[in-house]
Design brief:
Blueprint (H helix, E strand, L loop, with lengths): L4 H23 L5 H23 L3 H23 L1
């Protein structure tokens, strides 16, 4: 696996997601959960872009974009509801 900028950003975002999730589980304080969801959506967008470039626009890359948009929609809806 070749290390490039997008892969490095993906690893950094994934580490932050894991750290925030572990903190939320241990402390039972879920105020950082929307941040975790936004970072997850950004990670999926980066993975989708890498797949889009690598595999020449397959359904998997479109699925990544769709899931990322859905996660962002849920986060925005949760902010509007509360």
């Amino acid at each position: 696996m070749r290390w490039n900028f997008s892969f490095g950003i993906q690893i950094i975002l994934t580490v932050f997601i894991i750290m925030i999730s572990i903190y939320c589980i241990i402390s039972k304080d879920f105020t950082l959960l929307p941040l975790s969801q936004v970072l997850l959506a950004l990670t999926l967008i980066i993975i989708g872009l890498r797949e889009w470039k690598k595999a020449k626009r397959t359904y998997v890359s479109i699925l990544y974009f769709g899931v990322a948009i859905f996660i962002l929609f849920v986060v925005v809806q949760s902010f509007i509801a509360y």
